[in-house]
Amino acid sequence: MDSGGDVSSTARGAHTTAVGALYASSDGTHYTDWQLERRLDRGTWRHCLSQQRPERHLFEDAAGRLVLVERIALDGAPPWLEIRVDDERAWAVDTRPRRPRE
Questions:
Q1: Residue 11: exposed, middle, or buried by beta-carbon count in 10 A (0-12, 13-18, 19+)?
Q2: Peptide bond before 78: cis, by omega within 30 degrees of 0?
Q3: Closest CA to 81 of 19, 37, 38, 39
Q4: pLDDT tens for residues 43-88?
Q5: Which domain of life does this protein belong to (predicted)?
Q6: Cα–Cα distance for residue pair 65/58, rounded to 1 Å
Q7: Domain coordinates of the chain in residue numbers?
């Protein structure tokens, strides 16, 4: 994944970490480049195909399902999405309330 155009983000004013890219996926989840790399490194996902403009990647998950991710601008993220950072990583968090299971 291209990390060009990194943006720095600060959590609670304590640390600054580069947020290389943010991706929206076909499964409704948002991921940072760190989260995608982690899934690849752990073997949770396998990279299948890439497109450069617009930047898109197709992955296969461990269950054999395909997940398409497309890079989006940080300022284009939905209002309920929070980017959390620490010393070495940044990850996307869905802050919407969860509905209880029936």
A1: middle
A2: no
A3: 19
A4: 999 999 999 999 999 999 999 999 999 999 988 899 999 999 988 8
A5: Archaea
A6: 10
A7: 21-74+92-97
Alpha-carbon 31 to chain mean position: 1
Can you tell me the distance from the alpha carbon of 11 to that of 37, in angstroms, rounded to the nearest whole number? 21
Tokens of 33: 């480049």
What is the token pair recorded at 45? 């996902």
β-bridge pairing 56-61 and 15-19: unpaired
Q: In a 10 Å sphere around its CB, with 0-12 CB exposed, 13-18 middle and 19+ buried, how is residue 40 labelled? A: middle
Distance between CA atoms of residues 102 and 89, nearest Å: 35
**C-beta of residue 38 within 8 angstroms of C-beta of residue 32:** no
What pLDDT, on the 0 to 100 scale, is given for residue 14? Answer: 37
